[in-house]
Specification:
CATH class of the largest domain in chain B: Alpha Beta
Order of helices and strands of chain A: HHHHHHEEHHHHHHHH
Largest sheet of chain B: 6 strands, mixed
Number of strands of chain B: 20
CATH topology of chain A: ABC transporter involved in vitamin B12 uptake, BtuC
CATH superfamily of the largest domain in chain B: P-loop containing nucleotide triphosphate hydrolases
Structural class of chain A: mainly alpha
CATH class of chain A: Mainly Alpha
Largest interface: A-B, 44 and 59 residues
Distance between the termini of chain B: 73 Å
Strand order of the largest sheet of chain B: 6-7-8-3-9-10
Strand order of the largest sheet of chain A: 1-2
Structural class of chain B: alpha/beta
Strand content of chain A: under 5%
Helix content of chain A: over 70%
Oligomer: heterodimer
CATH architecture of chain A: Orthogonal Bundle
Number of helices of chain B: 19
Shape of chain A: globular
Radius of gyration of chain B: 25 Å
Distance between the termini of chain A: 41 Å
Number of domains of chain B: 3
Helix content of chain B: 25-40%
CATH architecture of the largest domain in chain B: 3-Layer(aba) Sandwich
Number of domains of chain A: 1
CATH topology of the largest domain in chain B: Rossmann fold
């Protein structure tokens, strides 16, 4: 009875590799949500949903795109950068005091300011990679040190004014488009090349997936773990420079609004907070989605506290909706169809 | 008629019919049927990727099937968690042990049903007594229930995992590779017999056919996610079973023909190498040669490989590669040194594959730096770079586009071997390259190693399977206690000799000869 109870079809392995990647699905989903949200917003307030709002969103979102790129690289390797606000402030203060006020003609001061920011990122990375301090603690400690140093040096009020280059970057037009929009398009393209289409980007994905296996495979793990912190710090510093150009001055709290959004943009964009997964285009979508929500909420004109509560709730909902399961479900529906 | 068939069904401990499970695009199990009688030990046999693990996951409640029905003693059974499966009397000893390392033996045994004392607080003493009693019942009285599981040797952890499953198995006990870390089977088989005496059905999964024949009466063979047959083991021969497992294509290459003999000049010269548990090991590896290493667990083989790969510190001695001093501080440095040294690590899952990335990405990762400027890397470029290496290990090109974590263990291993081949390194350090892979994959890996040495490559090769060394090695060293106990030339390698030397009994005469 138990012999030969079942002899069944002997089909071979006919599986196919997934045609569409999870990252692609999430990026497209976010882009669609952004467009729909922009369109629907005209029913909330007549001031919204126009081309000028699109421009506003792209300009306001450009700061977040820049910092979220660095944050995304750090998260990709399994870390986290909490020093972004302090480095935005550092970048801003250096722009006004050293570049703007002191020596407007010395072209090398801006790169020098960015290098200074990069050095701070390098110190964070040394703590994380060599001293094995958890990224969370290390970057927060760096953040406090840098913020305090900025406070001490400026004595509470940053002096100087926005350098011409910063104003030119944020306030002029190129081919009829506001220059920050042109800039952000170029930045996104370069960021995408670096993260998605370069050996370096592949190394970062590999390390985020399994650092030890990557080391054994021959990936320069230590260097590739330091690199994202340096880039993140330089991006944050550059965002400070952009903010100075946009608002014509630096304040000591100018970076405060960018920490959580920088992380939220990355995660909403489909990246795993544990590293090894995600795409930069998704992060860009996440950054603009958050910016659109911000403009809509402020157009409604709610109290600040209420605004923050709604913003937090929406971020949470977006995260829940855009989780991995959703994409798997979409893919399995496609397959059945 | 219907009543009698119902009664017949109720007599069976477990009946699973037409069970199907897909993970995304991957159909892991397409049509599995299995029937277990109460009190029988029933084996599940199949190659890697045949669907054994998925079947186990479904039966234990770790995952839900997409279709099909399962009955336990005639009652429908659809567990939604491992805990739920246990309440139905189905308990599992997992291959990847499921004990919590920083809890005590007692806590691991009794969770989640710890005894409560005053005010519902967990009572330490009572739990320890209960645990000690359970351990004694299963002849493990020598274990102290109070120590943390992490302090136990691997074999005892496996026994503990098995005891916990035995304790919870009311009607079905699932043992997934229970002897993976056990040196001898006497204790295990005794425990299994005691379980079958109380009419528990045992599902036994193992790669070792001799062991299966010893303890099991019948077996179900899976291939490509489908049940091929259920057979009585007293009637089926090994050949029948192999044929059912792999289909018609049982490979003849396994017999070890086509060996290359011409060894060239010395490629790797290791002199008095010390570090970790290794003391003063010296050997030469020639071009075109496969140098085997035989050893019991933990005799220093891992240290030898990891030192040469740049993963572990060298305390003493020197290494020359092609006559030049060789010092590697990282696997990357090892790859770049001279003619290159590439290492295939022991643990496929934790040290080898990068699960979320495609097989092609996994293969080309070490050589991405060579794409040149402008260095644009995308799936197509990676596929092109990986294709040749994939062919050398007989890997179907279409698998290169899969996330490597979705592939079977055998294909993962092929990809990792393709990776070391793709690096262009002339010396490969292969640590147990066929661990846990099926017969067909083994043949492909042997062929790839042979082809590599025929072109003048050198291979240092450790294997936990002696027949493999006998078949593949041009010379074979035996490591014992961190030292080379003996070295045998090709015509003297046989299992008997190796086992003798591995257990530390080298004949003085032979030592002189070697």
């Amino acid at each position: 009875m138990s012999n030969e109870t079942a002899t069944l079809s002997q089909t071979g392995d006919t599986r196919k590799a997934a045609r569409i990647k999870r990252e692609t699905v999430s990026t497209v989903a976010i882009a669609i949500i952004c467009v729909v949200l922009l369109y629907l917003s005209r029913f909330i307030s007549p001031a919204l949903g126009s081309w000028s709002q699109v421009e506003t969103v792209l300009i306001l979102g450009s700061f977040l795109v820049v910092v979220a790129f660095g944050q995304g690289l750090v998260i990709l390797t399994g870390g986290l950068d909490l020093s972004i606000p302090a480095l935005i402030t550092l970048g801003g203060v250096l722009s006004t005091t050293a570049v703007g006020a002191g020596n407007p003609d010395a072209w090398f001061l801006l790169p020098a300011a960015l290098l200074a920011c990069g050095f701070v990122g390098f110190l964070s990375a040394v703590g994380v990679v060599w001293l094995r301090v958890p990224p969370f603690i290390m970057t927060m400690a760096m953040s406090i040190i840098v913020a305090s140093a900025a406070l001490g040096i400026t004595k509470g009020t940053p002096r100087g004014y926005a350098p011409d280059a910063a104003v030119a970057l944020m306030k002029s037009h190129i081919l009829g488009l506001p220059s920050p929009i042109v800039f952000v398009i170029g930045f996104v393209f370069l960021g995408w090349l670096l993260q998605e289409r370069s050996p370096l980007g592949r190394y970062l994905y590999a390390i985020g997936t399994n650092a030890e296996a990557s080391r054994i495979a021959g990936v320069p793990v230590t260097a590739m773990q330091i690199f994202p912190y340096v880039i993140s710090a330089m991006c944050a510093g550059f965002a400070g420079f952009m903010l100075v150009g946009y608002s014509s001055g630096a304040t000591l709290r100018m970076g405060d609004d960018y920490l959580l959004p920088s992380i939220a943009a990355v995660v909403i964009g489909g990246s795993s907070i544990l590293g090894g997964q995600g795409s930069f285009l998704g992060t860009v979508g996440g950054a603009f989605l958050l910016t659109i929500l911000g403009t809509i909420i402020s157009a409604i004109g709610l109290e600040f506290g209420l605004r923050t509560i709604i913003e937090g709730t929406i971020i949470l909902i977006a995260l829940l909706l855009l989780r991995e399961e959703l994409f798997n479900r979409i893919r399995s529906i496609r397959r059945k169809a | 008629m219907q009543i009698s068939s119902l009664q017949a069904a109720a007599a069976k401990a477990l009946v699973a019919e037409s069970v199907r499970k897909a993970y995304g695009a991957t159909v892991a199990l397409q049509h599995a049927d299995i029937t277990l009688e109460g009190g029988e030990v029933h084996a599940v046999l199949g190659e890697n990727g045949a669907g054994k693990s998925t079947l186990v996951r479904i039966l234990t409640g770790a995952t839900a099937p997409d279709a099909g029905s399962i009955h336990i003693h005639g009652e429908p059974y659809r567990p939604h968690s491992i805990e739920d499966a246990r309440t139905h009397g189905v308990a599992t000893a997992f291959q990847e042990l499921s004990l919590v390392p920083n809890l005590t033996v007692a806590q691991n045994l009794l969770l989640p049903h710890l005894s409560r004392g005053i005010a519902g607080m967990v009572s330490g003493r009572r739990n320890i007594e209960r645990a000690a009693q359970i351990l004694a019942e299963h002849k493990l009285g020598r274990l102290d229930p109070r120590v943390d599981v992490s302090t136990l040797p691997l074999a005892d952890r496996q026994r503990l995992e098995i005891v916990r499953a035995l304790k919870n198995a009311g009607s079905v006990l699932i043992l997934d590779e229970p002897t993976a870390s056990l040196a001898e089977t006497d204790w295990l088989f005794e425990q299994i017999e005691r379980a079958t005496e109380r009419n528990v059905a045992v599902l036994y999964i193992s790669h070792r056919l001799s062991e299966v024949r010893e303890i099991c009466r019948s077996a179900t063979v899976l291939r490509n996610g489908a049940t091929i047959a259920s057979v009585s083991l007293t009637e089926a021969t090994d050949g029948d079973i192999f044929e059912m497992m792999v289909g018609k294509k049982v490979r003849e290459e396994l017999s070890g023909e086509g060996r290359s003999r011409a060894s060239g000049e010395t490629r790797l010269k290791v002199s008095n190498l010390s570090g970790g548990t290794v003391e003063e090991v010296s050997f030469d590896l020639k071009a075109g040669e496969v140098l085997g290493i035989a050893a019991l667990e933990g005799q220093g083989q891992r240290d030898v490989f990891r030192m040469l790969a740049g993963l572990e510190r060298v305390d003493g001695g020197s290494v020359e590669l092609d006559g030049k001093p060789y010092v590697a501080h990282s696997p990357r440095a090892a790859l770049k040194a001279g003619s290159g040294v590439a290492y295939l690590p022991e643990e496929r899952k934790t040290e080898g594959i990068l699960a979320g990335m495609t097989a092609a990405s996994n293969v080309v990762l070490p050589i991405l730096g060579k794409v040149g400027f402008p260095a644009i890397v995308n799936d197509r470029v990676e596929f092109r770079m990986a294709k040749d290496a994939g062919e050398r290990v007989d890997m179907a090109p279409r698998y290169l586009g899969f996330a490597i974590g979705d592939l079977s263990g055998g294909n993962q291993q092929k990809a990792l071997i393709a990776r070391v081949l793709a690096t262009g390194a002339r010396t490969l350090l292969l640590f147990d390259p066929t661990r846990g892979v099926d017969v067909g994959t083994k043949a492909s890996i042997y062929a790839a190693i042979r082809a590599f040495t025929d072109e003048g490559g050198s291979v240092l090769f450790y294997s936990s399977e002696l027949p493999e060394l006998v078949q593949l090695a041009d010379r074979c060293m035996v490591l014992y206690g961190g030292q080379i106990a003996a070295t045998y030339p090709r015509d003297q390698i046989d299992e008997q000799r190796l086992v003798t030397a591995m257990t530390g009994h080298v004949d003085a005469r032979e030592r002189a000869a070697s």
